[in-house]
Design a protein that fits this description.
Layout: E1 4-11, H1 20-26, E2 32-35, H2 40-52, H3 62-76, E3 79-82, H4 89-102, E4 110-115, H5 123-128, E5 149-154, H6 159-166, E6 171-174, H7 181-191, H8 198-211, E7 239-243, E8 248-251, H9 262-269, E9 279-280, E10 285-287, E11 292-295, E12 301-304, E13 307-309, E14 314-334, H10 338-355, E15 362-368, E16 387-396, H11 399-406, H12 412-415, E17 420-421, E18 431-442, E19 449-454
Parallel strand pairs: 1-2, 2-3, 3-6, 4-6
Antiparallel strand pairs: 1-7, 4-19, 5-14, 7-8, 8-12, 9-10, 10-13, 11-12, 14-16, 14-17, 14-18, 15-16
Helix pairs in contact: 1-3, 3-4, 6-7, 7-8
């Protein structure tokens, strides 16, 4: 067991800076590289990809990344933990294995494969046995949208990752694991923390929460004196330097851009937090009100004092389902009277939709540049505005109605108020709406599976 490890965050979401993981590996000493690819809507996207191509369904850009960094990771004994597997963990692991063999790493690499989170094929059985998977926000039973479900995945915790590391996996690929578990897993493995050491598990969970969004805690998307954050173009991603006693520090590689201080860490702490006293994960319940922060030198914050409680007997399930269709159209109106022109165009558009007898579940109009962000809090916009973007969105279960709406935006250019510009995007496109259904499932219903693939 080690007394201290360095866990570097390399991706905060699928589509984050491609070079960030490379810089984390090459920028200085680390023990683990943590890559977080999955968001709720991502799983449905991957399910659709897999339906079209059984070999797809995972974060494809993870594979060329591994080709770039695997040799250095093997040479420097850096382990990679990623939830890039999406809904095809085996396919992702197989692709990485092929890359490793191309690189001449046969016999030097084991890939851990964590599955068991995908519940899509089990939905009917679960419902038949009385596990209703009620919506946590509305209380509705899942059967009300059964015919429209696209994906269903339980959030697995850190323990399957620990099991893979115990089997000597150098790369661990999961499906829907918790963001925090990607960081907590290495800590449990290296420090030998017990399954009921709630304070230490909570500390590792909060460390994972701080670095899970990548550079959002090292100066990116930071409100505090954002104008003075150095070199955002070369922003450094965070590193959790963790100790066996449950304390840790957040830092970054020297010479990288961005900034780590108490305000930047505080902003990330309150991101997607909910009740600060009950941050519930599969591994523990962390109490954010006990977190203490202290500056510990340049670009370094010490985190300590964290308390935790016993884990619950349930796991969260992320379910996506089809909820109709939408389309969004935009036009830009310029000075003079930009705001008045935009409002007039909206009235004309709505009148024409009414005459066509089109029914929508919702029509939403925003005046970007006037009050789209702050709504009524912005007050009545001045008519001296140089330009206003009219943005109108509609949604409906009737795709034909949405299609007809898409043909009503362009005519406003010559049949509505003057001085339209900004129509380079062309006719609006019809898009399927993917809705989110959060639910709980008893832990007893989920059996994570851990396999190891030898390259």
């Amino acid at each position: 067991m080690k007394d201290k490890i360095r866990i570097a965050a390399g991706q905060g979401f699928w589509g984050d800076l491609p070079e960030a993981p490379v810089r984390q590996v090459e920028g200085g000493p680390i023990d683990y590289l943590m890559l977080d690819y999955l968001a709720e809507v991502t799983m449905s996207i991957m399910q659709k990809q897999k339906a079209r191509d059984p070999k797809s369904g995972y974060a494809r850009d993870f594979v060329p990344l591994m080709k770039q960094i695997l040799p250095a990771c093997v040479e420097r004994d850096i382990k990679v933990i990623a939830n890039a597997g999406g809904v095809n963990v085996e396919g992702c692991a197989g692709a990485v294995s092929d890359v490793a063999r191309e690189l001449g790493l046969r016999g030097k690499l084991k890939i851990g494969i964590v599955t068991g989170d995908d519940l899509l094929s089990r939905i009917d059985d679960l419902l038949a046995r009385g596990i209703e998977l009620r919506n946590m926000d509305t209380g509705e039973p899942l059967k009300t949208v059964r015919d429209r479900i696209q994906s269903a995945n339980a959030y697995l915790g850190a323990r399957p990752i620990v099991d893979a590391l115990l089997k000597s996996a150098r790369v661990v690929i999961t499906g829907r694991a918790t963001d925090t578990g990607l960081t907590l897993g290495p800590m449990i493995h290296e420090f030998g923390w017990a399954t009921n050491d709630w304070d230490k598990l909570a500390a590792g969970t909060i460390a994972g929460h701080i670095i899970e969004c990548g550079a959002q805690c090292s100066g990116g998307n930071c409100q505090y004196e954002w104008q003075n954050i150095p070199d955002l173009a070369g922003i450094g991603f965070p590193i959790a330097e963790a100790s066996a006693d449950g304390t840790f520090a957040i830092t970054k590689h020297q010479q990288s851009g961005g900034r780590i201080n108490v305000p930047s860490i505080t902003e990330q702490l309150v991101y997607e937090m909910g009740d600060p006293r009950e941050y519930i994960t599969p591994d523990c319940v962390a109490d954010f009100t006990t977190v203490q922060l202290a500056g510990d030198g340049p670009d370094r914050v010490r985190v300590f004092g964290i308390k935790g409680r016993e884990a619950t007997d349930s796991l969260k399930v992320s379910i996506s389902y089809s909820a109709g269709y939408k389309a969004v159209g935009t036009l830009v109106y310029t000075w003079p009277d930009a705001y008045e022109k935009s409002k007039a165009a909206d009235s004309i558009l709505r009148a024409r939709l009414d005459r066509l007898g089109l029914l929508f579940d919702q029509i939403l109009t925003e005046y970007v540049g006037a009050n789209a962000t702050h709504g009524p809090l912005a007050g009545e916009p001045s008519n001296d505005l140089a330009e206003v973007q009219l943005r109108v969105g509609v949604r409906s279960n009737d795709r034909a109605a949405i299609e007809r709406f898409t043909k009503e935006i362009a005519p406003l250019i010559l049949t509505g108020p003057p001085s339209v510009t900004g129509f380079a995007g062309g006719r609006p496109k019809v898009e399927e709406i993917v809705a989110y259904w959060p639910a709980l499932i008893p832990k007893s219903e989920i059996s994570p599976i851990v396999d190891v693939l030898e390259v």
